[in-house]
Design a protein that fits this description.
Elements lengths: L3 E4 H4 L5 E2 L11 E5 L7 E5 L6 E5 L1 H12 L6 H4 L21
Antiparallel strand pairs: 1-5, 2-3, 3-4, 4-5
Length: 101
């Protein structure tokens, strides 16, 4: 996997999209969009910090993620409501920008 983290200023132009399912009043949205440099890469950022860190994925990585999301692989609702972590699962580390990697 070739995930890159950068900032909006270093990335250039991105056609950002916010899901219509996100609550706009709270600023708790994740934004994603194609990097407009012809590379096919997709950038992701948190709407609370639009000038902060951006994670950039290749088109193949993004397509694999979307396919998994459509198949329900990232539906963590039951896990998020659990009182303890499942056996054998460690807490996800974070980088200084607060992104879960």
């Amino acid at each position: 996997m070739s995930v890159t983290t950068t900032t909006v200023g270093d990335l250039g132009r991105v056609a950002w999209h916010i899901s219509t399912k996100s609550g706009s009043a709270e600023g708790d949205c994740v934004e994603a969009g194609p990097v407009l440099d012809g590379s096919g890469r997709v950038a992701v950022r948190h709407s609370k910090d639009p000038d902060g860190q951006v994670i950039v994925y290749t088109r193949a990585e993004w397509d694999a993620f979307i396919a998994g999301a459509k198949d329900g692989e990232f539906d963590f609702a039951d896990e998020a409501n659990a009182s303890t972590e499942p056996t054998g699962v460690a807490a996800a580390p974070t980088d200084p920008g607060g992104w879960y990697l």
